[in-house]
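lol so apparently i was supposed to do this last week
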Amino acid sequence: MQRDTKQKRAILKVLTGTRSHPTAEWIYNEVRNEIPNISLGTVYRNLRLMADAGDILELDMCGAVSRFDARRDNHYHFRCERCGEVCDVDEPVHQELDEKVAKVTGFTVSYHKLVFVGLCRECPGTPISKS
Ligand code: ZN
Ligand code: MN
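anyway here it is w/ zinc ion bound
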């Protein structure tokens, strides 16, 4: 669909232009500069389609709202539990973990995703206690 293609292009442009792993709402606000009449629902729908197609990554933040990433290769992330910042972790994916878990469980492991949680450099202090 022609209109969807234009919308997807605008969304992808926003996503490739940031390293912040934004939420759908943030992306929506940026895309509106280019397509003022786009709806939040349309942005959500296109993000889902693009994630399903493997064009972008949807990051499951374990209860927090999903973040999106234009970088498609498997890589680790860190989420600050105080300010919510999500960034890439410069550490190669430990493929041996997949083999280890496959051996222990007897399951066929395709891959693993990993999000480290803690405090970023801008958020010093003691970690927020889990309730
Ligand atoms: Zn922080
Ligand atoms: Mn990333």
